Amino acid sequence: MVQMIYTIIMYAMQIYYYLLFISVLVTWFPDIQRTAVGRILFKLTEPYFGIFRRFIPAVRLGGGYMDFSPIVALIVWRMFVVSGVSWLLVKVLT
């Protein structure tokens, strides 16, 4: 039972990582952002990305801006959040 709870939570975190990654890719295609799927994806991922956007400003490159906060957010999710939750679950569930 404990292993099943751990597995479900880790799968959910993996799915959310994929949603974050897809959300980054969708920003390259503005037409997709305007669809119902794009709006749902934005609503699911923006709360997490918003944390990083507050602290990491967009960098001016040529005539536009490059937002590096989603890249940092993905790295933090993969390296710290997932491993931290995994460690916490192991401590709590065992």
Automatic annotation (TrEMBL):
InterPro entries the record matches: CCB3/YggT
Domain of life per record: Bacteria
Keyword Hydrolase part of the UniProt annotation: no
Keywords: Membrane, Transmembrane, Transmembrane helix
Transmembrane stretches, start-end: 6-28, 68-90
Family indicated by similarity: Belongs to the YggT family.
Protein's UniProt name: YggT family protein
